[in-house]
Specification:
Oligomer: single chain
Helix content: 40-55%
Strand order of the largest sheet: 2-1-3-4-5
Shape: rod-shaped
Structural class: alpha/beta
Radius of gyration: 37 Å
Number of helices: 10
Distance between the termini: 81 Å
């Protein structure tokens, strides 16, 4: 344990060091003024600097007395938890009250007796040890808390994600659609929904196998996600080979443009589909439903608008976009 003696008297420093050494405390440093002690404490925060576990400080010193020095030291980050024992020939209650108010934890009267000095030093160092142990434990708990929060956030994110494609899952879609419907009604704004699925995907799975089918789903999801331009747009796997996209503050024209962009992105993948009845590559059919400002609809009604448009796109030959404003 490291101890700093702050005393302008060389004789007092030597006497205290002898007493401390007899008690087994050999790591002892000295300062002859408050200014010198300040510099010593400010060095503690630097690399490889020697930490201090206890300060023994004379109350009566030139320039800055021990009480004022104690008060200043307690403003240093490196000294806030270091116990300070005042060494004094003064035992007036007012003087001691000022010392304790300044941050001192104990005092020793002059002339110094070895037994009393060592007893108070041991007590102060036990306190410092407990403070250090408590702070280390608090840091450990803080780190565990941060790790737990990060793990919970990861789990929360995973609970909103489709395990295969990585886009939002049906649960998250349902929650977000409810939120956006409420915002749309409150702000009197447009809200559009795109529903799309892969044309003749069952035939694709039967011909190429389910592993290839999973890979196709992932590529289509990535192509659709690439088309999204705003953080508020939500792409979700609605079920099987069907996907849905929530487009806040988007009218029918804007949603149709988005749907066409997604359709092109998927077409550009040029994934062969030998069993498709509408295209030699994997293609998608898309339905757009839009809720206009001032037209109150439930989530089910908006989904039905988009689903009806999707059904119509399939009826008309697939691989196309159909819109249904439902006004």
């Amino acid at each position: 344990m490291s101890i700093l003696i702050v005393d302008d008297s060389i004789d007092s420093q030597r006497l205290i060091k002898v007493f401390l050494k007899s008690g087994g405390y050999t790591d002892v440093h000295t300062a002859q003024s408050a200014a010198e002690a300040y510099r010593f404490l400010q060095e503690i925060g630097k690399d490889e600097a020697q930490p201090i576990d206890l300060i023994l400080m004379d109350i009566v010193m030139p320039d800055v007395d021990g009480i004022e020095a104690c008060r200043t030291m307690k403003t240093f980050d490196t000294a806030i938890d270091i116990p300070i024992i005042m060494v004094t020939a003064k035992t007036e209650k007012e003087e001691l009250d000022l010392a304790f108010t300044a941050g001192a934890m104990d005092y020793i009267t002059k002339p110094i007796e070895k037994t009393e000095l060592l007893a108070r030093v041991r007590s102060a160092l036990r306190l410092k040890h407990e403070i250090d142990r408590r702070k280390a434990r608090e840091l450990e708990l803080l780190e565990v808390t941060h790790q737990l929060a990060a793990a919970n956030e990861t789990l929360r994110q995973l609970s909103f994600r489709d395990g295969l494609t990585g886009v939002a899952n049906r649960r998250h879609f349902d929650e977000q659609l409810t939120v956006e419907l409420g915002r749309c009604l409150r702000d009197q704004d447009f809200l559009s929904l795109i529903m799309f699925d892969i044309d003749y995907f069952k035939y694709y799975n039967d011909y190429y196998g389910h592993l290839q089918g999973d890979d196709c789903l992932k590529k289509v999801a990535a192509a659709a996600e690439k088309a999204l331009q705003r953080p508020g747009d939500v792409l979700a796997r609605y079920g099987g080979e069907e996907f849905a996209i929530i487009l806040p503050q988007t009218d029918s024209e804007g949603a149709i443009m988005m749907a066409e962009r997604i359709k092109t992105n998927v077409s550009d993948l040029m994934i062969p589909h030998a069993r498709s009845k509408c295209h030699r590559f994997v293609s998608i059919s898309l339905g757009v439903g839009t809720m206009a400002p001032g037209v109150a609809r439930t989530a089910e009604e908006l989904i039905q608008l988009a689903d009806q448009a999707l059904y119509r796109a399939k009826e008309l030959g697939r691989n196309q976009v159909i819109a249904n404003e439902g006004i």
